[in-house]
């Protein structure tokens, strides 16, 4: 999407003259938001959509929506508002004097209400490059939403549940229930939002159980159909049961496709997907599972659907945790390298892309990114201008260089190459060749992310009478009796076709 709203809107007279405390541009014009009061004196929030005229100097009022809270407004309009905007509208002084009146008759008000009920056009909704002017401070919608991240986000296409925050009426009393603010979205559209979900004090606000409670309480409560928008009623009719099934708390044994958390030695844990049970004497005692990190470029399991691991059943439990994409290290965010994927914070030219290289640009970390929508192009962006989506698992610099050479990515001055076992940097001058790299070894302790690391070698002999290579099934050196070897996997794994592995 590329439009006038990615430019600085203060250059346009109609926008610059608007004194609303919060303004958000959209391709068709801008939304103005004001704290207001109802006739009974109760606080409310008013949103008005103003569309540009062809001359860019004037604009027409198209929609006016008045709701008691920002959450009510979000589920009416269908898009998210930054937390800073929510704070300004909830705690700001009422500005009823700035509400724009309808210029003529009631037909335009009816037309605007219909637009809200059926759903706003994409041109009437903010996107990452839209401008947000809140309290006199201007930044982009993408940057504001990125800085105002929720406490917990759970996503399973096409659904997304966000727990925006958790609080107690009396913060001193830990025994008080937690109040949750939340959103339930279908794709990018907010369908339900509110601050009326309560969970017991012993539950964490960002836990799996909290996500399940948001879905249960928000969707199962009695509602007057007259208070629902068309989108909300359709969601309840078609999507409610499907969403509930996606988030059910599962009990073992887990079926293929179940997302699980596997406890590892040393207090570590990993997430992945069950591919099949291992059954002894009619009882499930363990699972074949595929770690999330096996899908990362550079990992031995990358593009190999038959790459699996074994875990004892006592170490496995279900989870709603997001897929582990290795974008956080022990000390914080990692330096991304070739093959990592990112999203743009607010660059109007692209939404997502692939990292080509990381560069030290005069003391600042920048990335060269190839956009998904323009293969062959390269944009250099500051580290704060991208959102890491997935990392990589290149074991060594040489393996990384081989993959880059195959993709036609050449070295650059000041480039930083970070792998699991090494870090290297290209000098700023001289020949840009691999021999010029200054390298330093790193310790690679993660046996799941780097199963072939020399420090992960485990000398475990196969059980007598059972063929196979046990370290490939249990790379963690567990003390439990090793499982028997498994039948050879087919070229295209299909556990449903051959049932449980009764060994």
Automatic annotation (TrEMBL):
Renumbered residue ranges of the record's region Disordered: 445-503
Biased composition (Acidic residues): 491-503
Protein name stated in the entry: Uncharacterized protein
The species this protein was found in: Frankia canadensis
Upper lineage: Bacteria, Bacillati, Actinomycetota, Actinomycetes, Frankiales
